[in-house]
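Translate structure to sequence.
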């Protein structure tokens, strides 16, 4: 089979589309012919050597995708021809993937392969943030950092489903317009005096802040009302300063950490959460921008496009 690989760490020039051995199935796995693969910044970090990798080169990145079972491997409840998707299985940048049945998500006929590869990783992240990290309630005011990013766009729409008001933060007028199209009630630019604007808009402070920037963590607390919450789930802007517990006590504020892998712990959890996500899409409560699509053989161009920060929607790879 063909796969997008790298044997050394570095820029996109290290990527190589080559012939590799097809996976040998183990007990509890099925073989999936891939139809669409999600590209994420984690794949960039793996290519650069920022993440620890197991095994020997050539390495295959990718953790998210969808396809059709071509070898059910006598696994109960699965058969050849079943449509499946996954959000957390390695070596996805290939024509075939060995998929543990514990990670296999049933893909309804009315959800396309491209949609599944576009939404699962970021959509399941937004889902747990809005329902577990903080249980969003009608009437709340929610502040979302990087509101025009992949998670930000979906988190905005899910938050609106629950009846909350969304204030977004982003870096440009173009991205602000995207956030407003996704339902944000107000959007401010990082280059402006956004803290003052948020405090004025929220009449003293927001109920919860979703902070994926990291370096803005203390600013997030500054715009959170007493008894409010900050959910910290990313560090795109660098490491946060240490949080003073006395500050938390004085304002009865809460800091919550967020990581998707803490929630995708069983097949039942994966299926339940993905089913809710698909239901929201089916009911048109969540809309997705058309993904930018590249052939898997053109993976270098896809990586370059993602790193350029010019993309506002999902990038997918098609074998």
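Result:
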């Amino acid at each position: 089979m063909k796969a997008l690989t790298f044997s050394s760490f570095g820029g996109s020039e290290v990527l190589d589309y080559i012939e590799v051995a097809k996976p040998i199935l183990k007990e509890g796995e099925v073989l999936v012919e891939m139809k669409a693969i999600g590209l994420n910044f984690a794949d960039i970090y793996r290519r650069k050597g920022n993440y620890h990798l197991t095994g020997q080169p050539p390495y295959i990145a990718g953790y998210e995708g969808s396809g059709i079972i071509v070898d059910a491997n006598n696994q109960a409840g699965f058969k050849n021809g079943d449509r499946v998707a996954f959000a957390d299985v390695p070596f996805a940048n290939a024509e075939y993937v060995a998929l543990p049945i514990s990670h296999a998500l049933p893909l309804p006929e009315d959800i396309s392969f491209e949609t599944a590869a576009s939404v699962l990783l970021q959509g399941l992240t937004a889902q747990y943030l809005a329902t577990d990290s903080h249980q969003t309630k009608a009437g709340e005011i929610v502040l979302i950092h990087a509101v025009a990013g992949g998670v930000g766009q979906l988190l905005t729409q899910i938050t609106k489903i629950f009846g909350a008001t969304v204030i977004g933060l982003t870096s440009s007028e173009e991205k602000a317009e995207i956030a407003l199209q996704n339902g944000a009630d107000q959007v401010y630019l990082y280059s402006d005096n956004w803290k003052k604007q948020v405090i004025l808009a929220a009449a003293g402070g927001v109920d919860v802040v979703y902070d994926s920037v990291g370096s803005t963590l203390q600013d997030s607390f500054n715009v959170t009302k007493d008894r409010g919450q900050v959910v910290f789930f990313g560090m795109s802007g660098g490491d946060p300063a240490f949080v003073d517990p006395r500050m938390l006590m004085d304002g009865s504020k809460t800091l919550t950490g967020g990581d998707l892998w803490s929630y995708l712990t069983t097949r039942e959890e994966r299926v339940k959460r993905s089913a809710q996500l698909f239901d929201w899409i089916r009911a048109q409560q969540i809309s997705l921008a058309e993904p930018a699509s590249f052939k898997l053989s053109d993976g270098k161009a896809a990586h370059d496009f993602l790193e350029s920060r010019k993309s506002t929607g999902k990038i997918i790879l098609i074998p």
